[in-house]
Every structure is written in C-alpha cells, then in structure tokens.
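Summary: Need help interpreting a holo structure output

Steps to reproduce:
1. Submit the protein chain below together with the SMILES for magnesium ion.
2. Request a joint structure prediction with the ligand placed.
3. Inspect the structure token block that comes back.

Expected: a single structure record containing both the chain and the bound molecule.
Actual: see attached output.

Input attached:
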Amino acid sequence: MSEVVSWLDTIGRVFEGIPDLATPDQVESALSEILDDPGLTLYWWDWELERYVDVRGVTAEPAAGAGGAVTWVGYETRKIGALAHDARLLDVPEFTATLIPLMRIAMERDRLHRDLVSKLDQLRASRLRILETADGERRRLERNLHDGAQQRLTAALLGLRTLEGRLSEDPELVAMARGALEELEGAIDELRELARGLHPPLLAQRGLEAALRAGAARAAIPVEVDLRLPRRLPEALEAAAYYVCSEACTNAVKHARASGLWLTVADEENALTVVVRDDGIGGACIECQEEASGLGGLVDRVEALGGTLAIVSPDGGGTTLTAVFPLEPEPGL
Ligand SMILES: Nc1ncnc2c1ncn2[C@@H]1O[C@H](COP(=O)(O)OP(=O)(O)O)[C@@H](O)[C@H]1O
Ligand SMILES: [Mg+2]
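--- attached output ---
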C-alpha cells in the first residue's frame, strides 16, 4: 500500500510539476527529474511528417540506450509519442499501468491545443489576406471607372450640350438632344454611385471622418453624426468602419422605413467603436438570408480584423448595429 501511495504521489508530482502549455523540453526535464532517470528522452509523433521528433522538433527514431527501454505512448490505431528510459522503470507496475496512459492523454491534449491555436492563427491571417485582396480589387475598379468610363462619358456630355445649343431652330431635334442628355446625365450619376459604393476615393484620400460626413450629407434620410476620430487608422480598419455605416444606412433606407439614422464612431480606450441606430421597424436578421447578404458580409469583414459585430433589432424597436475593433495602444501614452 505504501508503495502505491508513494507512486500515486510521484505521478501527482509529475503532472503538478509540468506547467500548462509547457514546452516539450520542460516536460522532458520534469519527467526525468521526478522519475530520477537522467537519460530519459521524450519523443512526439509528428502527424504531418509521420515521424517521431525529439523535444527540439528534430526527426529522431526512439531508441533505448544501454540498460534502457522504449515505451510507446499511443493507442492501437494512433501514435502519440514515445519515452526512452531506464529499463528498471518497467519493474514498477504503475509506470505502464498508470503513468503512461496519463501521459497519453496529456500529450495528445497538448498537441491538439497547439494545433488548434496555430490553425486559428492561420485562419485569421488568411481571412485578412482575402479581405485585403478584395479591397485592392475594389479600389482598382473604382479608379478605372473614375478615370476611364466616367471621364469619357463626361466629355461626351459636354460635347452634346454644345451641340444642343446650336440646334435652336428645330424643336424636334432639340427635344431629342435633351432626352439624350438626360439619359447620359443619369448614366453618369449611376456610374458615380457605383464607383463610390465600390470604394469611396475620399476614404483613402482624406480618411474615415471625411468619408462618413460626405456619406451622411448624401444619404436619403437625415443622419446625425457624432465622430471622435483624432487620428488616421489603418486602411482596412477605416474601410471596415465605413462599410458598417454605409450598409446600415442602405438598410435603414431600404428595409426599415426609418425617419433618421444616428451614427457614433469613436476611437477611444484602445478600440474603434461604431454604433449605428435607426428608428425603423426592426427585424433585421443575419441568418434569415440564405445567399451572401450585406450584414453577413459585414460580420466577415469585422471579424477578419479581430472585431465583433452585434445587431439588436426588436420588432418595432429600430435597429442598432455595434461594431467594436480592438486597437493597439497609442505609442507614448
Ligand atoms: N435596419 C433594418 N430594419 C429592418 N429590417 C432590416 C434592417 N436591416 C436589415 N433588415 C432585414 O434583414 C435582412 C438582411 O439584411 P442584409 O443582410 O443587409 O440583406 P439585404 O439588405 O441585401 O436584403 C433584410 O433583407 C431585411 O429584411
Ligand atoms: Mg443590406
């Protein structure tokens, strides 16, 4: 009994002595010390390389030294690791019956945890890359539309106006020219709106505050703005905040029957907080839409930057979108 108690005590110390997320070499030296086996060597099975690696991550086939043995850690169908140790440990029944099964759980849990964290990091980075690529493409399209089609149509408009001025004798021709002019003006307006929706040039040139004020002035319903933006922020962040506001505004006009929109954007306390509220019918919903939707796209955009988007929209109670983006503390503060 006393031997069992002492073994349980040893096993307890093995696991107690290993800190959470210990590095492999910390685990190895803790085991070696507690089991009083200076030559103890720990190996992990690398599931991508399909080979054993030592605590430094270097490929190494587990091998027993003189007077040593190798104990495999794993399940019948799955390798997890191995331990090269003093063969005398095999004389202690608790070593194989208790310690090794516990190590199996601990080593696998550790491996899963590390794998999950690194996969999440990769996922975050790839979301951000996709977003940046899409934004670059939108900016390029906006510039092409602005510098190409829009300029040429505007030149055609000026030509047509001059022509119209010289047609004063024939009322029928004047009416035709006027009709064509109106069409052309409408097309130029639509093109301008389209280009602006892709990526407002003001945003890159003069920043979030200027772009939001211009957007609010243009909106189809009154927009009250409260902006606390003391500095320029990274491009992707300004774009995300802008798109939250413009989608909220489009939705308020399109779906909400709102009489107004209230917009607060504040760069304060290491966060950029965007709150957009309308006083419409409520009932906005991300999951209700099967295809890619405005609000769903916003969630992706905000989360790719590490932020959160919350929507509160009770029936009859208006809609509030709140986006919060974490910011690095300002240097020197
Ligand atoms: N401000 C709002 N007020 C009321 N309903 C809204 C509002 N915003 C969105 N909705 C509802 O939620 C749905 C999803 O919105 P959204 O994802 O922007 O898609 P879309 O605008 O393309 O229809 C809308 O179709 C609409 O029914
Ligand atoms: Mg929408």
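--- end attachment ---

Reviewer comment: The chain has two domains: 2-121, 207-333. The chain has a mean pLDDT of 90.
Status: needs-info
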